[in-house]
Amino acid sequence: MTITEAGPHSTPGGTPEKRGMNLTLRVWRQQGPTAKGKMVTYKVTDISPDMSFLEMLDVLNEQLIMQGDDPVAFDHDCREGICGMCGLMINGQAHGPQQTTTCQLHMRSFSDGDSIDIEPWRASAFPVIKDLAVDRRAFDRIIQAGGYISVPTGTAPEAHSTPVPKKDSDNAFDAATCIGCGACVAACPNASSMLFTAAKVTHLGLLPQGQPERNDRVVNMVHQQDLEGFGGCTNIGECSAACPKGISMETISRLNHDLLGALRAGARPKS
Ligand code: SF4
Ligand code: FES
């Protein structure tokens, strides 16, 4: 905002600067995991189009705190699109109208006067902790079930003595970009976690270092996602369309291929 004698929204040349946006927010408020939640309407004013969506929520929270009200709880950490902590349903879309993380969504994607519905991820495997914050530890347990390697990888020079085909390394790196945000689950009508699990299975399964546990990894991780209560994959593709890292449906095909091979080879879940 430029402050001049002509007023807070005028440029030095006298041209009126575009004012910020006035928005109506309908936010899911829920005191705790077992409390009944409801949508509550708030107004925010003079929101810059250059703010991120989370900065806009910061403005709302400052307003609530100044009024003596409880601020809205929501998850965030890096605010750079890399940690996977943020995640909101925005007007019914996981991470909102752009294929990016909630922290990298900017208010220029909205217009002055808009009403915006803001809800937590909706999946029984991601129970609400408070307001917009959900418990995503189910993902951690899927990783614990097999998302690791146990082979000694040696020192850096030794790594160069293990050749990896370019195509495999590219596909492994693509799968490894999954940040565990959970948008795939939230976007899926079945609340399936297949895209997440497939990304984690694939990025290790394509590399030489991931081979010793390859069969056990896939059966145990798929078994764990079933135990957590995620739904089955029916190839709808909403997961990939919502994924901020563009993890492809092909990754799920790779998981299914690995799973069949592992079951045929006699691998069975640990528990
Ligand atoms: S696959 Fe994509 S949407 Fe799903 S957790 Fe990973 S980054 Fe998020
Ligand atoms: S806060 Fe880290 S990805 Fe959004």
Task: Describe this structure as you would to a colleague.
The protein is built from 9 helices and 7 strands, in the order E-E-H-E-E-E-E-E-H-H-H-H-H-H-H-H. It is elongated, with a radius of gyration of 22 Å. It starts with 20 loop residues before the first strand and ends in a 7-residue tail after the last helix. The model is unreliable at 1-11 (pLDDT under 50). Strand 6 (128-130) and strand 7 (133-134) form a beta hairpin. With 271 residues, the protein is an alpha+beta fold. It has 2 domains: 21-130, Beta-grasp domain (Ubiquitin-like (UB roll), Roll), CATH 3.10.20; 136-264, Alpha-helical ferredoxin (Fumarate Reductase Iron-sulfur Protein, Chain B, domain 2, Orthogonal Bundle). A 5-stranded mixed sheet has the order 2-1-5-3-4. A two-stranded antiparallel ribbon has the order 6-7. Bound molecules: iron/sulfur cluster and FE2/S2 (inorganic) cluster. FE2/S2 (inorganic) cluster binds at residues 76-79, 81-86, 101-103. Iron/sulfur cluster is lined by residues 178-184, 195-196, 199, 243-245, 247.
